[in-house]
Design goal:
heterotrimer; A mainly alpha; B mainly alpha; C alpha/beta; B: 13 helices; 0% strand; C: alpha/beta; 6-stranded mixed sheet; 4-stranded mixed sheet; globular
Chain lengths: 279, 330, 432
């Protein structure tokens, strides 16, 4: 099937426009990060008057960026891993078993996507605090509390996507394993999971990013010790000044690991979505 | 034996319609068997209950109380006022009710436009990147970047771009192209809605792109070949092959995107710093302001509950309509 | 068969259990009597800078009393939410800084320790404290909910060189003069007055001052809101008109909410600024103290009947103690320490604010022109914002209404008595 000239030009125009739309903010982020403060306070320039790496140095001392970074990494990774673990069991049950309440469970899980976060922010906060007072398990202002909160944020979508993915794995494989005497758990770990790697990776990435970017709950549920990047970066607008160049530098630094990781895994993501969510 | 526990149906989406007949044969035997799926679900159920359902029930309770700063410390002192919060916030003749309604329309317009544009950009990119060419992988990676960027980083960059005096947008429009004489505002006034929309589309369209790209991989190439042999041009192929094949993807994608944008808090919160201009006063921000800035958690909760009910109804209607149509086709 | 069951069950339990183990590093352990948690507000150039300033003082306190104070500097954007969360849950710091305008609002939650005579005695005695500052520490007729820590007031900062270039010899003393001078100064891309137009709190502070000068009140004696009285309408209109009618304020200021107006003043883009204790900030932005003058905030040339001679709110930061503290004595002795002459001098000198205790005010550090002007204002013409529980709501609602009016003015929409009144009426209706 050959491409016509019109199609080729159409493609080029569409791609150019889209690329511009995507690139311009990224370009501004990168160039502003190497501008001196005066540059970002005065009129916009495409190029720094004097490129400097000073913002990348100053940003560590304006706010405790390193600590926020560690917190975000710890919270997001653990939340992602836990979320996926929980989702795998749940998806396995929904995909491979018929049981009373299966429909109710699926609908409820999906409908939690609709809950306005603001509705349960304060109740959840108070539950954490009271639980802490009653049992001594500190959830408020701790990374544990954030992990649990965030993993449930990504759980519905993860379960739903994995159910789709597991459904796409032929049951013949399960049955073959069971003929060999494998129990459900072994079937899950030895047959289904190896076949579902793209789906699992996709869900992990999704869960990680959900936790990495969350602002509202983090702003109320953390203290200095457990604050994550998404909230911590607001510290660059201080009582005195807005350090735009440092904001951009810090944004760049915190974005690079996620972007690189995501792009490296995007193949899985597409594969996971293909078989899972969008089937 | 354990083997008997696997469900027979290949298609799990199929409702139970066909199962009763097969029940006697396939149904797991013994009471203990049926415990298994529940055990597997237990962690998920516990978490959903603890983090979503119970707090939500508490939220509904809050909406029935006069929960202002006088009572926030000890809820037992908060007067139970029944539906008074709902009456006050949803009364469309009062200032508060009018603002909520305004905010609702803004949010609705925002969500629909944002989803629409995100889908449009997503499908354009997915279609033009369907065929291999040099640089395709790079463009695909580039297009996905906005989605991978942390919300805060992405939105704060946009707010920098949109500053009136120091932003790129006005620099290009006013200084370089000379399209306008006055430097327009982008973060306050009428334009703020469009700014919010652009930022939201910028952040969301890669997700649409990703899903649609995945969906397109399921479209067998022969269909296009056949269409091409029939002499179908680009638009014809798009209409009669691509879009119908993407229908299942679209069904889910549009609903999920709609729910996400409708409840979106992070984007306006970061873009406008906590108090959005009235033209871009999304309902999530509106509720946040009512609860946390004016310390009236009762009416904030009442608004949230109303919002939740609305979304439930919309989603249910959407699913019903789309399912019925699917049945008609079948 | 049952073993398989057991396996699955174990896995599920492990998954659940791993959650509680995940992350687990909440080190917010219950306060033992030898420790205190202190939330400081952001007073200096950055959160980290504040920590560097406070830490040596806290070390000093630990040496004196053996109580270790853990400080967290909370950004202003989070502070009120976090305080509210702490009040609602009984969980959080022992001692906090609060914006003094929030005193009555937070007092109403009942979460703060009341500074009755005994408690005031424990922190050094009522008589030491500047009366105006103490008046802004809680509702009248009740024991204060906090103790003043840093005192501030609004002053008019003006750029000496711009004034000289425009042939203006003295700072304006009336708003009419300010508008007139402003017009002279608004040339060549520069502007007369910088305004933080999108910051609801700043707006609300000015709303208070102007309303006082026009003889208005935001709450009547019963505590009911009186937002849309003619006096308040005139007051708000006067302030918005600097941008809308006099055009001495750059329209971009309508989107300023992050202290860009101070930067504009420091960079010479605007010749005048109404601000509280801007000096230390201006210094970090490379504007030397001799480049600007500090004068009292102007008055109306001919005040209407009932107009008060008030040109600033009593601004400042108070220190409060949460009732839920497990170490009230320690907390009070920390408050006493922070309000001692020595600490007051050190800290206020650093932040460019004024001591809240009379005895420290005589230190030569506070006789610089800026501090003298602030001092004079505080003693003679400053009044506290209404000390009612709804104060923070007032700031949000009226401040936001003004933000919207500035947005109208900036985009060329007319700002009239009617449009101002409509906004204020709306705001008032939202008070419950």
């Amino acid at each position: 099937m050959r491409e016509t000239a019109g199609e080729r030009w159409g493609r080029r125009i569409v791609l150019t426009l889209l690329a511009l739309f995507v690139v311009i903010p990224l370009y501004v982020m990168v160039t502003s990060a190497v501008k001196p403060l005066q540059d970002v306070q005065n009129g916009f320039t495409w190029w720094p008057s004097r490129p400097t790496v000073q913002p990348f140095i100053d940003m560590w001392s304006t706010v405790p960026l390193a600590r926020y970074l560690v917190n975000s990494l710890v919270v997001s990774s653990i939340a992602a891993v836990c979320s996926v673990a929980v989702a795998i069991f749940a998806a396995f049950a929904v995909s491979r078993y018929r049981f009373r309440g299966r429909g109710v469970f699926s609908v409820t899980v999906l409908s939690t996507q609709m809950f306005p976060g603001i509705l349960f922010l304060l109740p959840l906060f108070l539950i954490y605090v009271n639980l802490g007072n009653a049992t001594g398990i500190e959830l408020y202002a701790s990374r544990t509390g954030l992990v649990i909160t965030y993993l449930t944020f990504s759980l519905p979508f993860s379960i739903w996507m994995l159910v789709g993915y597991f459904d796409s794995i032929p049951r013949g494989l399960d049955e073959a394993a069971q003929v060999d005497g494998a129990g459900p758990l072994r079937t899950l770990f030895q047959v289904i999971l190896p076949a579902a790697v793209p789906g699992v990776v996709a869900v992990t990435v999704y869960a990680f990013m959900t936790a990495w970017g969350e602002v509202l709950f983090a702003s109320v549920m953390t203290d200095e010790g457990s604050r994550t990047l998404a909230v911590g970066l607001q510290g660059y607008s201080t009582q005195f000044n807005v350090y735009w160049n440092q904001i951009m530098a810090a944004s760049l630094v915190v974005s690079i690991p996620v972007v690189v990781g995501f792009l490296a895994l995007q193949r899985y993501f597409v594969a996971g979505l293909t078989a899972g969510a969008v089937k | 034996m354990a083997t008997s526990t696997t469900a027979p149906d290949a298609d799990q989406r199929e409702p139970r319609a066909g199962s009763p007949a097969r029940k006697p044969v396939r149904r797991p035997r013994g009471p203990r068997r049926s415990l298994l799926p529940y055990l597997l679900l237990a962690p998920a159920i516990v978490l959903e209950l603890a983090i979503h359902v119970i707090p939500m029930v508490v939220g509904v309770w809050m909406s029935l109380l006069e929960l202002t700063q006088f009572h926030i410390r000890d809820w037992s002192t908060a007067p139970f006022i029944g539906l008074e919060n709902y009456r006050a916030t949803l009364d469309l003749n009062s200032a508060a009710g009018k603002e909520l309604l305004h905010s609702f329309w803004v949010t609705l317009a925002y969500s629909l436009l944002s989803v629409g544009f995100a889908w449009l950009l997503g499908i354009s990119a997915a279609v033009v990147l369907q065929r291999p060419f040099r640089g395709r992988a790079i463009l695909r990676a580039l297009f996905l970047t906005p989605y991978a960027l942390p919300v805060y980083a992405a939105v704060i960059t946009w707010s920098f771009l949109l500053q009136r005096d120091t932003g790129l947008v006005n620099h290009v429009l006013v200084d370089q192209l000379g399209l306008m004489n006055d430097r327009p505002f982008w973060l306050i006034g009428d334009n703020s809605f469009w700014s919010l929309l652009v930022v939201s589309v910028w952040r969301n369209w890669p997700f649409a792109f990703l899903c649609l790209m995945a969906g397109l991989q399921n479209v067998p190439g022969e269909l296009y070949e056949a269409a091409a042999i029939d002499g179908a041009g680009f638009w014809r192929r798009l209409r009669s092959v691509t879009l119908p094949m993407l229908r299942p993807v679209n069904l889910v994608l549009l609903l999920v995107l709609f729910l996400w944008t409708f409840n979106d808090f992070n984007t306006p919160f970061v873009l406008f710093g906590g108090s959005a201009p009235e033209q871009a006063d999304l309902i999530s921000i509106h509720i946040y302001r009512s609860s946390f800035k004016t310390w009236d958690f009762g009416s904030g909760s009442a608004m949230s509950v109303a919002l939740l009910l609305f979304l439930l109804v919309v989603s249910a209607a959407y699913l019903l309509i789309t399912n019925r149509r699917r049945d008609d086709h079948a | 068969m049952s073993r398989r069951h057991l396996g699955i069950f174990t896995a599920a339990v492990l998954a659940a259990a791993s959650l509680t183990a995940c992350g687990g590093s909440g080190d917010d352990s219950a306060a033992s009597p030898k420790t205190l948690t202190y939330w400081a507000s952001n007073q200096g150039a950055s959160l980290e800078a504040d920590k560097t300033i406070l830490q040596p003082e806290l070390d000093k306190f630990e040496k004196q009393t053996g109580i270790k104070v853990t400080v967290e500097v909370v950004p202003w954007s989070d502070l009120l939410n976090r305080l509210l969360a702490a009040a609602a849950s009984g969980k959080g710091p022992d001692v906090v800084n609060i914006g003094n305008t929030w005193s009555a609002s937070l007092q109403a939650t009942g979460a703060l320790v009341e500074f009755d005579d005994a408690a005031l005695q424990a922190v050094g005695g009522k008589d030491r404290i500047v009366p105006a500052a103490l008046a802004a520490a809680g509702a009248p007729g009740k024991p204060p909910a906090a103790v003043p820590l840093y005192s501030m007031a609004y002053s008019l900062y003006y750029n000496k060189k711009s004034f000289a270039d425009a042939g203006i010899t003295a700072p304006p003393t009336t708003w009419e003069q300010l508008a007139e001078y402003g017009k002279k100064l608004s040339t060549g891309g520069k502007w007369g007055l910088a305004i933080e137009g999108a910051n609801p709190s700043e707006n609300a502070h000015h709303a208070f001052t102007f309303s006082q000068q026009y003889g208005g009140e935001w709450f009547d004696s019963a505590g009911k809101p009186t937002f849309d009285t003619p006096q308040n309408v005139s007051a708000i209109k006067r302030y918005i008109d600097f941008m809308a009618a006099d055009k001495i304020t750059n329209p971009s200021n309508a989107e300023y909410a992050q202290n860009q107006s101070v930067s504009d003043f420091a960079n010479g883009k605007a010749a005048m600024l109404l601000w509280q204790s801007a000096g230390s900030n201006l210094k970090t932005q490379n504007m030397p103290a001799d480049a600007y003058g500090v004068a009292p905030v102007p008055f109306l040339a001919s005040p209407p009947a009932g107009g008060k001679k008030v040109n600033s709110m009593v601004a400042g930061i108070n220190m409060a103690v949460f009732k839920h503290t497990k170490n009230k004595d320690g907390a009070l002795s920390f408050v006493k320490f922070m309000t001692s002459d020595e600490e007051q001098t050190i800290l206020n000198k650093t932040y460019g604010s004024l001591p809240a205790v009379k005895t420290a005010a005589s230190d030569p550090a506070f006789t610089a022109p800026e501090q003298k002007t602030i001092q004079e204002t505080l003693v003679t013409t400053a009044a506290p914002l209404p000390q009612v529980p709804e104060e923070s709501t007032f700031e949000t609602l009226v401040g936001t209404a003004m933000k919207e009016l500035f947005a109208d003015a900036a985009s060329g929409k007319p700002v009239t008595e009617e449009s101002v009144k409509a906004k204020l009426t709306d705001a008032q209706q939202k008070m419950r």
